[in-house]
Structure formats: structure tokens, C-alpha cells
Amino acid sequence: MKVTSVITTEIDLDEVYKLCKPISRSECVKAIRQFVSFQIDMMTSDQDGGWMFPTVELIAGELIQQGLAEQL
Questions:
Q1: Coil, helix or strand at residue 51
Q2: Could you give the maximum distance between any two Cα atoms of the chain, in Å?
Q3: Which pTM does this prediction carry?
Q4: Which of 22, 41, 46, 57 would suit a FRET pair with 70, their CA atoms being 20 to 30 Å apart?
Q5: Tens-digit pLDDT profile for the chain (72 aa)?
């Protein structure tokens, strides 16, 4: 028997965009989904040493680092 568990989290885009200015909102939303999914995967993997809860500050920093947003 297999059991599937789904982890979800809400990201407040207004809070993210208070820390950075998106160059393309649609690209930022896509990148946020990928980043949060990656962080959740890291949390549930055997190699969880790199996991951090995807906070607004962490997400904004990732968007800036990827060149999808500008720091305010």
C-alpha cells in the first residue's frame, strides 16, 4: 500500500514584492513555485542539510539572485 502526503504553503506575493521589484511577475511566480517546491523536496529528502523554510526574505533573495527581480 502507498500513502501520498502533500505539503502546501501560502506565499504572500505582496510581502515578497515589498522586498524586491519583479521584472516579470509571471516569471517570478513560476520561479517562486519552483523554489518552494525545491525547498520542500530538500526538507523531505535524506539529504536535508540544505533545507530552509521558504520565508519571504529567502524567496525575494532568490528572485534577485536569479535576475528576475531588482532589490528595493
A1: coil
A2: 50
A3: 0.78
A4: 41
A5: 888 877 778 899 999 999 999 999 999 999 999 998 888 877 766 665 666 788 899 999 999 999 999 998
